Amino acid sequence: MGSNLKTAPQEKILRACYEALFYAWGPQHWWPARTRFEVIVGAYLTQNTSWTNVEHVLRRLRGAGLLSVAGIRRTALPELESLIRSAGYFRQKAQRLKTFVAFLDEHYGGSVNRMFAQTTEKLRVELLALNGVGPETADSILLYTGNHPVFVVDAYTRRILERHGIVTANARYEEIRWLLEHALSNFEHALSNEVPTPPATPRLTNAMVKINPIHRPSLMSTSRRSNLVQIYNEMHGLIVGVGKHYCLKSHPRCDECPLQRFLPKPS
Ligand code: SF4
């Protein structure tokens, strides 16, 4: 990625977008889960499917007493496939969950906490080497389960940044991640304790009326974490809100979007 001089204007816009969204909508409460392992399972299951389908599968696994490392370990592959069928690509995903648990057993004695005690860089490389773990899944696991300071770049992030002229259509995942991380870490440094504390009553705007918080507070969404991790967490959740409600693939609803004022001026 380029130097500070080259990216400073984009970073300024990104910080302004964060402020506008956060003060309009407040905390988004990602990731909705009761345990760290549940976040990991959710990160695998959500690939190429809607969150509603994932929630259904998570309820099934929980109801069967299998939403744990031990639960996935002891469940035979065909049974696991059947349990997660409604998440789509169930054979692939069941095998990938088994692979993850085997990795955890082999390298960390089956302990999620021991795994997350690794440095961000080392663990990211290890996760990316696992079958079915791309950058978005690896970074979701690192950020939302392990409270490691990495930004999760998803399709909404790319679409919004492209439409605002902040990145080009061929920007690589790592470039976008670097840009967001750099922009928001400067923000954290500049505002220290002010940012992560949500306003008691988020500022109401027209946009606020049209979006509900994506998730209710959960044990994982309210767990202790650093300011920087909290900001990365919120920014990703806010971007998902924009992507789902305004920045639609074919017909963006710019007129109603809280980010409209950050669109580049027509030349
Ligand atoms: S819908 Fe919102 S985020 Fe998407 S291009 Fe329009 S103003 Fe930007």
Folded structure, characterized:
By secondary structure, this protein is mainly α. The protein folds into two domains: 4-29 and 151-262, Endonuclease Iii, domain 2; 36-145, Endonuclease III, domain 1. Helices cover 57% and strands 0% of the residues. It has helices at residues 4-25, 36-45, 51-63, 69-74, 77-83, 90-108, 112-116, 120-128, 135-145, 155-163, 173-191, 206-209, 227-245. Helix 1 (4-25) crosses helix 11 (173-191) and helix 5 (77-83) packs across helix 6. The two termini are 26 Å apart. Mean pLDDT is 88; it is low at 192-201 and 206-210. Bound molecules: iron/sulfur cluster. Residues 160, 163-164, 242, 246-247, 252-254, 257, 259-260, 263 line the site of iron/sulfur cluster.
Percent of sequence in beta strands: under 5%
Q: How many runs of DSSP E, i.e. beta strands?
A: 0
Shape summary: globular
Which topology of the largest domain does CATH recognise? Answer: Endonuclease Iii, domain 2
> Gap between N and C termini, in Å?
26 Å
Supply the CATH class of the largest domain: Mainly Alpha
CATH architecture of the largest domain: Orthogonal Bundle
Rg: 19 Å
| Parts with pLDDT < 50 across at least 5 consecutive residues | 192-201, 206-210
Give the count of helical stretches. 13
* Major beta sheet summary: none
Structural class of the secondary structure composition?
A: mainly alpha
List each distinct ligand once: iron/sulfur cluster
Q: Which percent bin holds the helix content? A: 55-70%
